[in-house]
Amino acid sequence: MRDILAEIVAEKKAIVAAAKSKMPLEEIKAKIKPDTFRMSKKFKKGDWNLIAECKLQSPAKGRLNKTHTVEELARIYEESGASMLSVHTDPHFLGCNEDFAKVRQLVKLPLLRKDFIIDEYQIYEARMLGADAILLIARILTPAQLKEFLYTAWSLGMDALVEVHDEADMKAALSTPAEFIGINNRNLKTFKTDIQQTLDLLPSADSSRVLISESGVFSAEDAKVLRAAGCDGILVGEGLVRSENIGAMTRKLSH
Ligand SMILES: O=P(O)(O)OC[C@@H](O)[C@@H](O)c1c[nH]c2ccccc12
């Protein structure tokens, strides 16, 4: 069976190697200033937060939205009450660093750099692009890397959303002091989603962490179920970019 995550990670190694030879880490370090933890200032345990994702394409489903640019999506989300934006920089999602930097110029909300981080270089790069937070996917990192990358993000004033999909990932996430844990309802091998995944895993999370349910949220009803179960927020891409009225859907899912 096709393993989409493994394919993406294999390509990512080459992408990072090419980026390093174009702009060495030392050069990035000389350019950047630490951020001010804008995600953790905004997200409080017990509040409800929508992270709205600028997602034009998915590797499993192909093109999701042909009518809007990433910048247009970002503007609608911000005007319609999202707490934060997630912007892909990986080409499988039609993301790129340039679009991320453009969104940074356009909006004031905190921005999550959505990518597959396998090397500390990408964390410094995220800060250079103006990210407030990064995604760390437990499945593709060792527990030691997870901790190390979390501290690297913190040293740059950025927050990290540590993503888990099953009990083993959750255990790894809980072994770090991660403040934000994202339960991905999507199996990253098959890309199938089911919000039941969050409901199943929530009891094993510790209640001091901010818990975000990611992927496969398509309605206010889904959001309501997740909120009632104890989530502090949701991360939504497809459910927004494919809806007929993106602004109205953003408003519905924001509270
Ligand atoms: O479009 P959705 O089903 O609402 O999902 C958004 C987001 O959770 C998803 O893009 C995502 C979360 N973590 C990932 C890791 C890899 C690829 C994609 C993702």
From TrEMBL:
One Pfam entry for this protein is: IGPS
Q: Where is the Indole-3-glycerol phosphate synthase domain?
A: 5-253
Q: Does the keyword Lipid metabolism apply?
A: no
Report keywords, A-Z: Amino-acid biosynthesis, Aromatic amino acid biosynthesis, Decarboxylase, Lyase, Tryptophan biosynthesis
The top EC class is lyase
- What is catalyzed by this enzyme? 1-(2-carboxyphenylamino)-1-deoxy-D-ribulose 5-phosphate + H(+) = (1S,2R)-1-C-(indol-3-yl)glycerol 3-phosphate + CO2 + H2O
**A single BP term in Gene Ontology:** L-tryptophan biosynthetic process
For this protein, the Enzyme Commission number is 4.1.1.48
**Do you know which Gene3D superfamilies this protein is assigned to?**
Aldolase class I
Pathway the protein contributes to: Amino-acid biosynthesis; L-tryptophan biosynthesis; L-tryptophan from chorismate: step 4/5
The GO terms this record gives for MF are: indole-3-glycerol-phosphate synthase activity; phosphoribosylanthranilate isomerase activity
What NCBIfam families does UniProt report for this protein, alphabetically?
PRK00278.2-4 (NF001377)
Supply the PANTHER family for this chain. Answer: INDOLE-3-GLYCEROL-PHOSPHATE SYNTHASE, TRYPTOPHAN BIOSYNTHESIS PROTEIN
So what family is this one in? Answer: Belongs to the TrpC family.
UniProt protein name: indole-3-glycerol-phosphate synthase
Q: Source species, please?
A: Selenomonas ruminis
Q: What is the lineage of its organism?
A: Bacteria, Bacillati, Bacillota, Negativicutes, Selenomonadales
**Originating gene:** trpC
